[in-house]
Amino acid sequence: MSFGGKEVKRIYMDNNATTAVRSEVLEAMLPFYKEQFGNPSSIHWAGQAVSGAVDSARGQVAQLINCQPEEIIFTSCGSEGNALAIKGSAEFLRSKGNHIITTAVEHPAVLNSCKYLEKQGFEVTVLAVDSEGMIDLAELEAAICEQTILISAMWGNNETGTLFPVAEIGAIARKHKVRFHTDAVQAVGRVPVDVQAAGVDMLTISGHKFGAPKGVGALYVRKGMGLTPLFHGGHQERNRRAGTHNVPGIVGLGVACELAITDLAEQDGRIRALRDRLEQGILSRIPEVQVNGHRLQRLPNTLNISFAYIEGEAILLFLDMKGVAASSGSACMSDSFGQSHVIGAMGVDPMMANSNIRFGLGLDNTEEDVDFILEILPEIIQKLRDMSPFYSERAAS
Ligand SMILES: *Cc1c(COP(=O)(O)O)cnc(C)c1O
To answer: What processes does the entry annotate via GO biological process terms (predicted)?
Structure first.
């Protein structure tokens, strides 16, 4: 791209916010906008051609997470999946109890659904996390009581990449006969996700986080688990999610799931190696930095890192001028103090919490991208530190 007469690179490292639609996905979707436009609920030829495509997408999603196709409900996004799982379960199970357990670092779609339910008379326990963003399983088990109907704990954190011990949470939930929902929006396509092995009862997927388009997602609901729908209408999705199917999106989600099965090795190999190269490169070139999140239990593509004395958003602006797209916890996820609720919950020192940025690597990233960032970042950080009153105070003392 030309910018002020100069060629500027474009490096996208914000794949935890959204990903590009993959070519194979787009190609599979296109016929369903025009030639195969039918409504899959129609019994005539136009509908039937399309309902087969929805069925096979359902099979592709089910295969990726190891469940039955009829256990998949197509939704419009991850936020809808989380709301349907949490509000739908709470309402359905109300006569059994009114207590829900979640964690302090969940996505707003989970936390705000729980907040809404609190206003409706439910009790919510929000588990704290340690400095690496990890929950304490003993604390989780101790929080379960007679009234507990649901545990909602995410698989992989969108800001830090910290991976919760989902199988252990599942075992605790099962032992106490409590329903277990996990927001796996960041995990699907990046780490192996198996709902049987993990003992998960409900699991949220969002297409646009792994190469499918925006506006489509899925919720896995274990067979036999009742759910009150969010909205009422037609009989689609076994009466749990009314509304005409987003056929192109669903077809795209199916293909993305199929591709994800073979991509897992690349995520664990090449992407992890690139992330580690970026992390090690920053740590060795720039003093007074801190990696946020769990050292080992972490998504392979995510690096959340703080640079003392300066603001994360300022770093992002300077990176953007060089064509690098990253993000900061303090942008759209911010609470009223302008600080990420995730980083805040980890007890990170406020100055470090405001200076964090997140790199979310994706399949399109190369070693060249990482090396370019390692080349420009030390200068950006030093320039910002030279302007920072905190830095000069620290230098003076
Ligand atoms: C992006 C995200 C969501 C929301 O998904 P949408 O499809 O954008 O609504 C939920 N949970 C996590 C962990 C996410 O990263």
So the answer is: amino acid metabolic process
